[in-house]
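Before a computer can learn anything about folding, someone has to put a protein's shape into writing. The three-dimensional part falls to structure tokens, numbers that each stand for a local backbone shape. The protein below has been through that process, and both of its lines are reproduced in full.
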Amino acid sequence: MKKRGAFDFSFSWLFALIVGAFILFLAIIFISKFSATQADFIDTKNSKEISVLLNPLETGFEESGKTVLTLPTSSRLSSRCSIAGDFGSQTLNLRSENYDKYSENTNEISFHNKYIFFENNIKGKNFYIFSKPFNFPFKVATLNYIIPISQKYCFIGEYKDIRDIKDELTKVNLSNLVFVNSVTSSIDECPAKSIKVCFNKDYPRCSIFVDTTTFGQFVQKGEKSLYYEGNIALLFAAIFSDPALYECQLQRLLQRASSLANLYYKKFLIDQQIGCSQSSVGTYLLALKDDALTIENSVELSVLTKDTIPKLENMNPKGCPLW
């Protein structure tokens, strides 16, 4: 009888332990799934916050603007771009870091009217977001750039080569940018672990090379040559963004430029009836409308920048401007 009682007692404890372990297992699964759901919700909310921060930059009257994005934890930002539809689209995905692992958030925020440039899968907790209008020759859109505050960039070149980009970026006042005059200083003046951007001289330790001397001006990043053709808003985009994202966003911008050229052409026809517009403006607006949709990559950008865009820049009538 004593042995039987001991057996019953041991079995009761064993049964309790099994049931308790099972309940604990279910609790862990529930908490893990709840935590993942909460993390996805927070990541999606933070992605939407980026959109909110961009609005003042896009609606302001200044040539450029800056804001700071601060996230609760270190996060990874990625993007997908598509040219499907009238103006294409861009999606943002934000994944926060928890316990040395990034969340599996698959929720994406989609934009049809925003153009955001950054290196894919950039990481950080604090980011600069700054902007520059893209004129072609009329304003097509506001371009937005995102860079981690912790990532330093060092621009190296002769003063005459880096002067314009230095003046533009100094207006925005980004603390993580350094400019080195290669005539009076060397590349060793760049901060450690900075991304080195060289102008017109390809130093061995440079990650990015910028050519400003030829007509087909471009930014070299690894194997990719991203043409910007003298447009400083596109130059920023090529320097601070992923090459694939740059090429896709450029096509989206050209889709928008084509639609705007069509609208200005219709306005031109109305103005022409009252003798208000130059007759040659319409010819170049039609050229921009049609040719912009044929360009498949930045190498072909010169189709427009060689003749059409320079002509239109000087053809907007002062008495009754089209744009």
